[in-house]
Description:
Chain A is α+β, with helices and mostly antiparallel strands. Chain A has helices spanning 56-59, 61-66, 72-78, 86-98, 116-124, 137-150, 163-176, 199-210, 217-229, 231-234, 240-244, 287-297, 304-307, and strands spanning 11-17, 20-33, 38-42, 48-49, 184-187, 193-198, 251-256, 260-265, 273-279, 313-315, 321-328, 332-333. Chain A has one domain: 3-Layer(aba) Sandwich (Beta-lactamase). The first copy, chain A, starts with 10 loop residues before the first strand and ends with a strand.
Amino acid sequence: xxxxxxxxxxxxxIFTRGGLPESIHTVHVAVVDGGGQQVASCGDAxxxxxxxxxxxxxxxxxxxxxxxxxxxDELAIACASHAGTPEHLAVVARLLAxxxxxxxxxxxxxxxxxxxxxxxxxxxxxxAPTPLHHNCSxxxxxxxxxxxxxxxxxxxxxxxxxxxxxxxxxxxxxLGSVTLNHVHAGTDGCxxxxxxxxxxxxxxxxxxxxxxxxxxxxxxxxxxxxxxxxPFLIAGPGRLDTTLMPLVPGLAAKMGAEAFYGMALRExxxxxxxxxxxxxxGGERARPHIALAVLExxxxxxxxxxxxxxxxxxxxxxxxxxxxxxxxxPLKWA
Amino acid sequence: xxxxxxxxxxxxxIFTRGGLPESIHTVHVAVVDGGGQQVASCGDAxxxxxxxxxxxxxxxxxxxxxxxxxxxDELAIACASHAGTPEHLAVVARLLAxxxxxxxxxxxxxxxxxxxxxxxxxxxxxxAPTPLHHNCSxxxxxxxxxxxxxxxxxxxxxxxxxxxxxxxxxxxxxLGSVTLNHVHAGTDGCxxxxxxxxxxxxxxxxxxxxxxxxxxxxxxxxxxxxxxxxPFLIAGPGRLDTTLMPLVPGLAAKMGAEAFYGMALRExxxxxxxxxxxxxxGGERARPHIALAVLExxxxxxxxxxxxxxxxxxxxxxxxxxxxxxxxxPLKWA
Lengths: 334, 334
């Protein structure tokens, strides 16, 4: 998968203890400009990998195209990996009702809310989680509405051959400027297709969000505006997308499982940029450290409030400092 | 840290999705025989790293030496990273009382029980966790008793300069056959010193547990017997040490944070062996896969019950198969 091609030096996030490296994460980064050109990278920008939930802005495009008047919070929840708080669930329920669907129509499966307080509340009330609590329930509610508005069957909306999923795969290829046979299909944690494509392709998709053009521009703009206007809905309390977006002007950011990250960045010294990165081992804890290092390398001012999202020192359960985090993301400019 | 020296090929655990690699963990392994000779390795057996809680059998030795009549369950809980169930807490409380200590004397800090059912019970009862629930509370209770029996102050028992911690550092060097200046000190999640040493040193320590000899043999034997007689106390419901030990004759196994693993193995075609491995990125999910691959490579029969601990297929929240796990641990024999 890596190390077979000639690539630049990969990035590393090193968790130290007592001054010694304890664990090391390897990272690959691609940066694409508003014109679709790859302008910088670190490690293997050709790495074919799964963006997972970082694909949600693409998966929401058929909805944004079919429902131009949809309230921004409902479009945002369709792009979200939400934390299952009551605020999130209320918006999902509203979007779900819009297509005449119910919880029974959701095919995402069920897991406890990501938000610890929401999960504890369920336990206290002795209630089991429902598919509404699944972090992807907004995406699924949006997919059901996109089906109804396009005249596609709701039945089988998660299947690879369903017209909605076929269209989403095409959109990955079109927006990522990769041929369709370079968009590989797996199945995601919520049972819809998960597409894999080269890292530079996902960076290009986020660059399109940062600098929309062509026939999809209005829908891309609606998705960008919805995400940046509703950072809480995109993730939840204390989670990276939610905390980072309000701190960086013109940033739409979306996490994906297994430590993928996509950022659409409108205001940099290099103009609008799209960024995609993947931690090779899927280690989620490395993500905020890499995000800040990349933003800084791209000339975005990194404030103390932003640094607090990726602390350079580690403390134990007793509050004692036990280690640190060293970040090496040597961006190579094209 | 790695890749600077000439080393054998490292192992890999590859999580796949739709037939493509999604995330990759790198692993280093050392195997030492009953005579203390390194007999096999994979990757960098000289890697200096922190065994974390895999050190607990060593940290329990001063207790095993000072209290030869201590009940096996109490010695086991001193070696444990326990899950905080009522069964675990009862044994910790008994051990703690033996030195006239109370929960207020524990310096481990506080975290919710690892066992989800025990954690949910606390939430339902609206109770906050106490230091007793910390996975290391048994180790700390054992350290307090070792202090009292040795005439050392209980005060400051977690400090690097305390006679107990000085002795534990020396034991790492003696049993690992490394010079004391190759045993580096950091601070652990529970505030006691965490020692780092070459991987082969930790494998040698587990080989001593598998084949005790010399003046420490009786204490090593008591620790081995306590661990293997009480696998539930060592970890907890569904956790690897607890489930694996009863399935492998003559195995004492101990997990450490950041995906370290130590195994003392009495019955193999190569005689008694000690094994230590570290997943470079700290990815805990790779551990059962590597443990089984190493056991198999060493000639230990791997049963279906054992394979169930490291499933080769991955399922999503809706129960659908979405991926798999490929394991490459090319052991190189010395």
